[in-house]
Amino acid sequence: MPEKIVIIGSGPAGWTAALYAARANLNPVVYEGEPSSIMIPGGQLMYTTEVENYPGFPSGIKGPEMMDLFRKQAERFDTRIYTEDITSVDFNSHPFRLTSSENTEVEALAVIIATGARANWLNLPNEQRLAQTGGGVSACAICDGALPAYRDKLLVVVGGGDSAIEEGLYLTKFASKVIIAHRRDKLRASPIMQERAKTNTKVEFKWNSIVIDVLGEKLISGVRLQDTVTKEESDLGCGGLFIAIGHTPNTSFLNGKVELDKKGFVVTPKSWRTATSVEGVFAAGDVMDPYYKQAVSAAGTGCMASLDAERWLAHKGLA
Predict the structure, then answer these.
(1) Which domains does the chain possess?
(2) pTM metric for this prediction
(3) Per residue in 247-274, pLDDT tens?
(4) What is d(CA 73, CA 79) in angstroms, rounded to the nearest whole number?
(5) What is the set of active-site residues?
(6) What is the CB-side half-sphere exposure of residue 124 using CA atoms within 13 A?
(7) Which residues pair with 73 in a beta bridge?
(8) Average pLDDT for residues 38-48, to the nearest whole number?
(9) How many CB atoms lie within 10 A of CB 177?
C-alpha cells in the first residue's frame, strides 16, 4: 500500500510540511536524513547558536532547540519519522518509488523534497570549530549579523559575488567596518552591487586575498590572510568572519529525475507554487530557494508544499 505523502528531509521546511500534512490526515512519512560530516537531521539550523529573527521567540532560541520543537510538533500529530536518507528516486511511474539508505523501498502517491542546501565553507579546522560553537564564524549575515557579539566590531566577509556584497552591506548596519576579502582583483558581483559597496564608507576590500586560518580560541580574534599573487601572509584582527561563497543544494540523489537549475536547485516552474517538473512531486525550503535562504521562508514554503500536495491528491481522488 503506497504512502499518501512522503517528505524527504527535515529542517523548517520538512517539519512544517509534515505538520500540515499530518493535520490534514495524510499520515505523512518523513525521511529526516542520516547524520554525516556535511549535514545532520534538522539542517543548517543545527549549526546555529542563536536564532533571533524567527517570529514567536522574543528572547531568541538556539537553532537545535528550535528544530527539536518543530520535530516534536510534527510527532504530536503522528508523523512517522525515519532517520535515513533517500538515496534514489523513480518518478517515471506512479506511485513513485523511493529507496532509502537502509535499502528499503517505499511507494508514495505524492512527494515533497525538502532536503535543503548546505553552505559552502572554506573547510579550515578553526573555521569549523568556531562556527559550530558560536565563536564568531557564520555563513549567514542576515541570520547572525545583528547579534550583540558582532556590533561595533570589524567584520570580515569572504567572497566576491552578489551574495558576498549583499551580506557585507547588511553588516555595515552593525559593524564599525566591513572588510571584503576576495581571491581576485575584481568582483564577480553585478555592477550595481559593486557600486554600492565601493561607495559605502564602511566597506573596504582586501584584493587577491584568501583566508588560510581563523585565529582565536573560544572567540575569533582575527584571520590569517595569504596574498594569492605574492603568497605573503598577514594577520588581520576582527570580531567576526562571514563566509559568503554560495550554497550547494542537496539534490544529487535526484539524479536528474526533476528539473534543476544550473546551480542544482529544484525548479518550480510556476511562480508562488511548489510543484516541480514532475506532477505529484513538490519542493520546499532552501532546496528550491537560492534567494532568501531563511528559516521563516523555508517554513512558509513547507506549508505551501503540503497544501499543494493535499489539493493535488484530492483533485486526483487519491486523498
Answers:
(1) 3-118+247-315 (3.50.50.60), 121-243 (3.50.50.60)
(2) 0.85
(3) 999 999 999 999 999 999 999 999 999 9
(4) 9
(5) 140, 143-144
(6) 17
(7) none
(8) 84
(9) 16
